[in-house]
Specification:
single chain; alpha/beta; six-stranded mixed sheet; 36% helix; binds iron/sulfur cluster
């Protein structure tokens, strides 16, 4: 698929995420070197390693880097059954375009049906406990499956994303003893402007929801667009306190 035929390319003068955000830091080139070095370590020192992709802007950059540099780091996506159709379409395109395997993990259908039967389709809005229970069934259990047998996983976490992520290290060994897993965050030092600069430079396919002011994209019921001046992750679980805004994938130890 050529870049010009991608569904999200906006013709004319309408601003899109690239025109709004692409703005590299002065030391962007150094950051790219650092990122690539860590991805190469993922392939060697930390093998077997896999990339967890939500198909958000950061993750499409990492998958592009893995493919571009022919790194043996397979990718997985958690298809929760509640993703936007734009995300599902991007998943299909990514699977078609990627040289490294893009594996999809889905929740146990019976558990999802039972959860919805017991608590309703909108349970996540009723209480933090029910929201976390939904994340447990739809995300955390498939995640555990995806990480079985892995030594490390690669994420798109960046320090700039939220206060909760302000200390994200490049190599996070917090879960090494308890779970035997190392988390690698090759974009920890990147800004939002760096991410979009890379996407623009390499014409990386991305989720068109980013053009509609969704900086952080998760499940459809739990993600909304944000307004000018709102925090990066304020469109995720917007009805909850800032401190609760992680689904458990990246909860602090
Ligand atoms: S993000 Fe929302 S819909 Fe997705 S698993 Fe969590 S609570 Fe459920």
């Amino acid at each position: 698929m050529s870049a010009s035929s991608l569904p999200h390319r906006i013709q004319g003068n309408t601003p899109n995420a690239i025109s709004l955000h692409a703005n590299p830091s002065a030391n962007y080139a150094d950051k790219l070197v650092e990122t690539l070095a860590l991805l190469k370590q993922a392939e060697t020192e930390f093998s077997p390693a896999t990339q967890a992709s939500s198909l958000g802007a950061e993750d499409v950059v990492i998958t592009h880097l893995i493919n571009h540099h022919h790194l043996n780091v397979p990718v997985f996506v958690l298809e929760t059954g509640a993703l936007h159709r734009e995300t599902q379409a991007l998943l299909e395109r990514t699977q078609a375009q990627s040289s490294v395997p893009i594996k999809v993990y889905r929740p146990d259908l019976e558990k999802v049906i039972n959860f919805v039967k017991s608590h309703g389709q909108d349970a996540m809005y009723e209480s933090l406990e029910l929201r976390k229970a939904c994340c447990q069934v739809r995300k955390l259990e498939p995640l555990a499956e995806a990480l079985k047998g892995q030594r490390a996983w690669v994420t798109g976490l960046r320090r700039e994303q939220s206060n909760n992520r302000a200390d994200v290290p490049l190599i996070d060994r917090t879960e090494e003893v308890t779970k035997g897993l190392i988390k690698l965050n090759p974009l920890a030092n990147w800004t939002w402007g760096d991410v979009w600069h890379y996407i623009a430079l390499h014409q990386v396919d991305y989720n068109p929801l980013h053009d509609q002011f969704f900086p952080s994209i998760g499940c459809a019921p739990c993600t909304r667009a944000i307004s000018l001046g709102e925090e990066f992750r304020s469109g995720r679980w917007w009805w909850e306190d800032e401190a609760a805004k992680e689904c458990g994938l990246h909860a602090k130890a």
